[in-house]
Automatic annotation (TrEMBL):
Substrate binds at H206, H314. A divalent metal cation 1 binds at D226, D237, E434. This is Methionine aminopeptidase 2. It is an enzyme of class 3 (hydrolase).
């Protein structure tokens, strides 16, 4: 989920467009999936575990997976074995696939230069070791993110509605963290870290379908899929872009490269404005030809990456995607969402369209609410989401009704913040890639890194 950043004080970064025009990445359509793939056609060999799993899969799919070959496996499972593979769609909790909180690590990148000492420093190692709960919560959320998104990359297809896509992703996340979020307080334990962003074409961020949304994904769309998963308030924020027409390949390649530049150059003591310069330089080295017109790829300068706090998606630091004079440093222990947006439009977004995303402010003022519907809604928000961002569909599914007046009242009172869709020039196209990184005392961990991106 993106942070809106103030515009105006950014310096121009003097980079020549070098037209790195033949990037190859059309990465998402062909993304490799890890565990999720194993539960399909090849499960005859270790039948015991898989019989159980297949049954679960069928139940979850509810007939939708009809195109899939069904095996007639008459062997019954004699004892319950721990499942070793994910189902399709995903339904096996990550805690069952990785017992004893032994979740896979993200990509660990050693610090360099004056921070090289951290790799072996005893004190830093100690600091790292006392953080084991933080790490296992983060890794569980990240593995959930990878498995769900890799399934989504294989299954999102033109012709589907955005509602269908969002529900499939969110139901999967909730199953994998083992919390459906329906009973009071359950969504605070683990679940969605923010509303699933499904942003088409010139919409860069913060679009999630509300009830009744009829939007259908088309073959010629560029869709940014922004998914948040949290475990005990540790939010993994990571996004990718999909397109079916290869004419968008360079747009996607530019943004993937720019985000990876940000991830690579990030580290303890790095100044945020300087980091923005590296991102900008990478992004602006690309161009993309769409329907016979060549566009320079511009970073969207008023949307930024951000640090992440427990139960709060936007901290106080922001990671620009252009050079700025912000001399704030990244620090030990910080968690950052490194996200960049590249656009064929103006490289600047404005608010447009129906709001879906909301979050209670961490610094919410104490206001004497007059409206009873606002009062009761606020109670429900506190109990179910706290300061974690939510959307209207999340209110619907916990049984809230006719809440719009109350919700708008909470926004006006400054208790809840709304996040309207962020849109660039009409008819433009934008792409987004995003990773969450942990600046651990000893090492940088790109917690959301996967084989897909
Ligand atoms: Co974000």
């Amino acid at each position: 989920m993106a942070a809106k950043s103030p515009v105006g004080h950014s310096k121009t970064f003097d980079v020549k467009s070098s037209g790195k025009a033949n990037g190859s990445a059309h990465g998402n359509g062909t993304a490799k999936s890890g565990a999720a793939e194993d539960s399909g056609e090849d499960s005859n060999d270790d039948a015991d575990g898989h019989v159980v799993i297949e049954a679960t899969a069928t139940a979850v799919a509810g007939g939708e997976g009809g195109s899939k070959k069904k095996k007639k496996n008459k062997k019954k499972s004699k004892k319950k074995k721990a499942p070793t593979a994910q189902t399709d769609p995903p339904s096996v909790p990550i805690s069952k696939l990785f017992p004893n909180d032994n979740y896979p690590k993200g990509e660990e990148v050693e610090y360099v230069d004056e921070n090289r000492f951290r790799t072996t420093n005893e004190e830093k190692r100690h600091l790292d070791n006392i953080n084991s709960d933080f790490l296992s919560d983060y890794r569980q959320a990240a593995e959930t993110h990878r498995q769900v998104r890799q399934w989504a990359q294989k299954n999102i297809k033109p012709g589907q509605t955005l509602i269908e896509i969002a529900n499939n992703i969110e139901d999967s996340v909730r199953r994998l963290v083992g919390h459906d979020g329906l009973s009071e307080g359950d969504a605070l334990l683990a679940g969605m870290g923010f509303p699933t962003g499904l942003n088409l074409d010139d919409i860069a961020a913060h679009y999630s379908p509300n009830a009744g949304d009829k939007t259908v994904l088309r073959e010629n769309n560029v869709i940014k899929v922004d998914i948040g998963v949290h475990v005990n308030g540790r939010i993994v924020d990571s996004a990718f872009t999909m397109a079916w027409d290869p004419m968008y390949d360079n747009l996607l390649a530019a943004v993937k490269d720019a985000t990876n530049t940000g991830v690579r150059e990030a580290g303890i003591d790095v100044r945020l404005g300087e980091l923005g310069g590296y991102i900008q330089e990478t992004m602006e080295s690309y161009e993309c030809e769409i329907n016979g017109v060549t566009y320079p790829i511009k970073p969207i300068r008023n949307i930024a990456g951000h640090n992440i706090m427990p139960y709060s998606i936007h901290g106080t630091k922001s990671v620009p995607s252009v050079a700025t004079n912000d001399v704030t440093k990244m620090e030990e222990g910080d968690v950052f969402a490194i996200e960049t947006f590249g656009s064929t439009g103006n490289g600047r977004c404005y608010n447009e369209g129906d709001v879906s995303h909301y979050a209670m402010r961490t610094d919410a003022p104490k206001v004497d609410l007059r409206l009873s519907s606002a009062k009761s809604l606020l109670t429900a928000i506190k109990k179910n989401f706290g300061t974690i961002p939510f959307c209207r569909r999340y209110l619907d599914r916990i049984g809230q009704e006719k809440y719009l007046l109350g919700l708008n009242n909470l926004v006006k009172s400054g208790i809840v913040e709304d996040y309207p869709p962020l849109v660039d020039k009409k008819g433009s196209y934008s792409a987004q890639f995003e990773h969450t990184i942990l600046l651990r005392p000893t090492v940088k961990e790109v917690i959301s890194r996967g084989e897909d991106y």
